[in-house]
Amino acid sequence: MNYIISLLMGAITSLMIYLNGSLSGAYGTLYSTILIHFVGLLGILAVSIVKRAKMNFPKGLPLYLYSGGLVGIGTVTFTNLSYAKLGVSLPLALGLLGQTVFSLFADHFGFLGMKLVRINPKKLIGLAIIGIGICIMAIQ
User: Fold this and answer.
1) Same domain flag for 68 and 95
2) pTM of this prediction exceeds 0.90
3) Is 140 a residue whose pLDDT tops 80?
4) Residue 70 and residue 125 in one domain
């Protein structure tokens, strides 16, 4: 089931890049990023109201855990900037490559207290295949 959810996430991400990039073309990067996150806030507030969810703030959490929203702003802004020149597939592929490289290092070194999962030759071969595929996609 988690594999199917992950595949759906990839499809939705492609749609998001198209929609966000098109909005950015109409409003500019800054204002489109504000609009995108405002609409997202309204959407999650509506879901929370329907589900009658209550927000609890656990004590003692490190402050850096709250920075995911800033990462989201960076992700939307950078994809909006690259969409106009690269389309949907290349920014998505390059973004996934960046995520893969970072996550390999994060796992290997136990970044921020994560469980150690060492890089092995199979992972490097897979990374090389992904890199070659992206290079082929980028050739115009």
Assistant:
1) no
2) no
3) no
4) no
62 shares its domain with 78? yes
- The 10 Å CB-count burial string (b at 16+, else e) for 60-86 is eeeeeeeeeeeeeeebbbebbebbeeb
What's the confidence (pLDDT) of residue 114? 85
| Per-residue exposure over 21-58, b if at least 16 CB sit within 10 Å of its own CB, e if not | bebbeeeebeebbeebeeeeeeeeeeeeeeeeeeeeee
Interval 46-85: pLDDT, tens: 999 999 998 888 999 888 888 999 999 999 999 999 998 8
Residues spanned by the domain of 68: 1-85
CB 21 within 8 A of CB 80: yes
- Residue 54 backbone phi and psi in degrees, to 5: -110, 135
Picking from 82, 102, 83, 109, the residue whose alpha carbon sits closest to that of residue 19 is 83
